[in-house]
Here is the input.
Amino acid sequence: MTRITRPIRRAIGAFHIGRILWRGVIIAAPILIIAWMLYQVMNAVNSLGGKVLSLFIPERYLAWGTGILFVLVLVIILGIVEVYHGDKQKGVWQTIKRNTVGKIPFFGSLMARSDRKIISLEDLKKLAPCKFWLSDTTPHYGFIVNEQKVRGAETELDVYRPNVPTIVPGDLFPLKRRLVIKLGNSSAEILDKLASGGFIGSNEEIPVPWGYETEEEFKERINLTPLELAMRRLTEKGSLEVPGDTGTV
Here is the structure.
């Protein structure tokens, strides 16, 4: 009996060892890949910084890491200059930015601008939260950025819709005010709900009417979808029309 069970036990033992090795590979492989990528990036940065320093210092005096330290110091200096001079409309620093990073396709003009503004979580906390209709049946959460007047048309609201759960980046939609339901909840409550995928949130949402709305119009707008509102308007219009006398004498 032992002659039969012994190979089986060996096979089971080998199977467990294989599982352990496979689990180890699953954990170690991503770590090794990330470590290799970081090492390559650090080598590239060190090489770049070393080439610049070699113009002033012989290469035999440059230890490994000197180039990384040089690049790090250079980045810190550029950051300090940008903090104290980046908001000025005119100046030597703005000219340098326009002629360097400003030449980069797509993003260069944004990075070189002195009046650029990129939305952040702190900015969102200062905005009024809302729900809006991007389609006739599905509402979305968003934040009202500003009010935009449109010549010959009703006022629009620029609404920022954050991605879930990252919040930033997101999308910006110009929407008619009647399609936006302003909320009286704090922005932090809505941000917590979005960042947690709905697991954390307020116990109650508080819709707020626009100043021009009657109570009846407000209740109708927050309880009906745009499609339902349109159907109700058509029904009311049809019921008010009185058919003419088409009979003949």
